[in-house]
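Why does residue order matter? Because the sequence determines the fold. Keep that principle in mind as you read this record.
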Amino acid sequence: MVRRALSAALAVAAVFGLASADAPTCGEGSKCPQDTPCCSAYNQCGVGAFCLGGCDPKYSHSLDSCYHAPSCKSGDFQLKTLDDVQTIDKYLGDASSINWVSQGKPVVYEDSLLLTMAEGTVGTLLSSTHYVWYGKICAKMTSSQGKGVVTAFIMMSDVKDEIDFEFIGVDIGNVQSNFYSQGVTVYTNSANLTVGNTVENVHEYCVDWQEDTLTWSIDGDEMRSLKRSDTWNSTSKQFDYPQTPSRIMLSLWPAGLPSNAKGTIEWAGGEIDWNSQYMQNGYYYAMVKEVSVECYDAPPMAINKGSKAYQYTDIAATNNTVEINDDLVILGSLYATGEEPDLGATTASNAPKPTKSVDTVPGGNPGGGNRNEDSQSSAAANNGGGGGGATATNSAGGPAATSNGGGSNGFQQGPSNQGSGTSLEPGLGKLSGSALAIVVAVLGLLVL
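Structure:
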C-alpha cells in the first residue's frame, strides 16, 4: 500500500512540529512564501534553522532558499562527550566546527551518549551536520525497551529519501529495516532482521549504500540487500531507490502516544507507559557509542563544480539534479535564509531587519522517518527542547547521566517542559517558545 506522506519528515521519531498558529504550511502543491521561504521537515515555513538540515527544496520558495548541504566527511565519531554536539537553536550551518546537532536531551554516560525520553517530551534526536551521498555508515548502539517506544538509526535526505534501522521496544530480538523514495510510503519495503538482545548488548548496525545496491548488516553479517534495478516504478517512470544526499539520524521517540494514529500505536506495541519498569531516573533511554562513515564517490551523473557542498538544481530531486560545488552557506543569524544568508548578522550593519515575528527553529524530533498515517492530530505533549547543566541522579540502579548543554533550548525532563519551536521577535533580540498547537507528523518505517 502506497500513501504520500503528508508531513515531510523524519528519521526515527514521531514528530511534533511546533510553529505559530498562522505560520504558512508547505507541501504538495504549496510552496513557502518569500518572507518565510524554507519548508521544514514538518511542512511548516520559516527562516533560520528551517533553512538548514531537513529543508526541502521542492516546497521551499526557491531552490536557493535552503542552505547547501555540507558534503560527506569520512571518520570515526566517538560519542563520549557533548563537545561535538550543538543544539538546533545554536547551529547556523558551519559544519566545519561541529559534527552533530541535537534536539531533545542527549546526556553523557560511561563514554557514550544516551538518547533520553521523559514524559511530556518527544524524545531526542542527534543528526549529522555533514551529508552522505553514498557510503558505508555504521552505528554502535543499544535500543530502548517498552510499549510504544521506538529507537532509530536512519539516513534521511532533505527530499525524504530514507534508509532505516528501527527498533520496536516490545521486540528486542529483531530490528526492522526499510527504505523509501521521496516520502512515498511503501509498507511492503520493510523486513525484520534477527539480532541478539538489542537492549543489553551493543551491536554494530551498518548501511552500505551504493548507487546500485543497498545492504543492511549487523555485527559484520550481511542481513539484507536491495538492488536499485528491482525498485523501478512503471507509473512514475523512475527508480524508487534512495539516491540523494542524506543526514545520519539517531533518535528515540514515543510512537505510542495516545494522540498518534491508531496504526502507529499498534505498530509500536501499544500505548506508552510512563511508569514503566524500563525507565530509569524518569526517562527511557538508548545508548550510542560510536558512528563511523566511509564516503564513496558521487555518482557519475553528478554535476561536479567543487567538493564542499551539495545543491539541488531541479525540483525533480533525483541524483542527476544534485550539484557538488564549493558554495557553502553559513547563516548570519536565525533571521537568515539561503536567499539572504547575512540577514540579521551583527557584522552586516546594512542588512534589513525583519518587521514581524517569524518562526526560526522547527520543533520536534524528526528522527522517526516516513511513518505517516495520512493524518495530523493535535497533541497534548509539548516537544522537548534542551538545556545545559541538568543532572539525573542514579536512584534506581540505572544510568546516572549528566547533560552539559547538548540538548536543545528550554528542555526539561518532565511534563512541564517548553516546546522547542521558537520565534524571533523583531526588536527584542531573544528567542521565545511558540505558544501554539503542536502538529503531529507520525513517521517511521513500516506496518507489521
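The helical segments are 262-267.
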